[in-house]
Amino acid sequence: MIRIDSVTKRYPDGTVAVDRLSLEIPDRSITVLVGPSGCGKTTTLRMINRMVEPSEGTILIDGVDSRQQPVNTLRRSMGYVIQNAGLFQHRTIIDNIATVPRLLGWSKDKSRARARELMERVGLDATLAKRYPYQLSGGQQQRVGVARALAADPPVLLMDEPFSAVDPVVRKGLQDELLRIQEELGKTIVFVTHDIDEAVKIGSMVAVLRTGGRLAQFAPPAELLSSPADAFVEDFLGADRGIRRLSFFSSAGLDLLTAPIVAVDATAEQIAARADAGAPYLLVTDVEGKPLGWSEPGRLTAGRIDRGQLLSHGRPFVAGQESLRAALDCAVLSPTGWAVAVDGEGRAAGVVSQQAIGEAIRGAHEDSVGPAKVLR
Ligand SMILES: Nc1ncnc2c1ncn2[C@@H]1O[C@H](COP(=O)(O)OP(=O)(O)OP(=O)(O)O)[C@@H](O)[C@H]1O
Ligand SMILES: [Mg+2]
């Protein structure tokens, strides 16, 4: 849909912000532009909707040179979201969201109905409709910004560091919300960030730019992490690239052991049988099978298992659903060195040692990034 073809932007003072950039932005997915400050991300984004005109090269939208379209038509087909949302301070939330429909000549009622629908879609409580932007938290304002950009249902969303002004927890929520919205609405999203974790999490494709506006690498995140094109990209990905890459491998292949699991109401024979399985610790569950904690087998007495004596099992991972990174994290944090796997209902599905996870990681690396192992 959007093709950037050898585009250069030279500002009047001679600064080359973008240098012969070529990118094919796939339809209906999230493409992330990432790179250090001043590398030309905002300039690139603004050239797509012609807030900035390229000095050389062309940008094709659906195969048509963007300069052949009236600029207003072009901009209406592209929602734009910026850091701190950029809301109109003197307008209520609902009127902020209804801005573009109103400009397009929709009636007040229809525009507001649309705005209410969007508030729900981006997870904003309807009671906030009549407030002004200053009466909202930063995260809520950012959601309003997204709703406003979606109001006229444009096929494209351009987002310039939309979530960088909020704290990590709110940010994670906004990212999850964006992924959900993208899945539901199938928008083509170009998303700028300088946070590589954010890029890897939300991007289907990630373009890494270097200072001077040159493309360093354009690849799906798993490929970026496994095969950075050069030292600059590798450096930009950071020291824990290997650990991050594990988030693209499913935990489905892990061999979960159920032998070292014992229920809190187990009989003496059951405890003895589990102890014979040879595991240094047993995982004790409640009667529904939900994990309670670890114990050495010798410390367990039928009918008198004291929950207070158990070692914490930490945060379990959801078997098959979460990644090897999550499984490894559980094992590393576990006092026994074993991770606890649960099913969707939180019942213990099995336990797995650090060593077994290590072997699965080696196996996954050998298979490289075969499609069956990639989570997204
Ligand atoms: N209007 C302008 N006139 C001259 N130079 C400009 C102008 N706008 C941006 N630049 C320069 O172009 C380069 C790229 O700027 P741009 O805003 O695209 O970077 P960015 O990657 O978005 O950076 P950041 O991560 O800090 O937002 C920078 O060197 C910047 O100083
Ligand atoms: Mg910028």
TrEMBL record:
GO terms for molecular function: ATP binding. Residues 2-237 form the ABC transporter domain. Keywords: ATP-binding, Nucleotide-binding, Transport. The keyword Iron-sulfur does not apply. InterPro entries: AAA+_ATPase, ABC_transporter-like_ATP-bd, ABC_transporter-like_CS, P-loop_NTPase. Belongs to the ABC transporter superfamily. This is ABC transporter ATP-binding protein. It comes from Streptomyces phaeoluteigriseus.
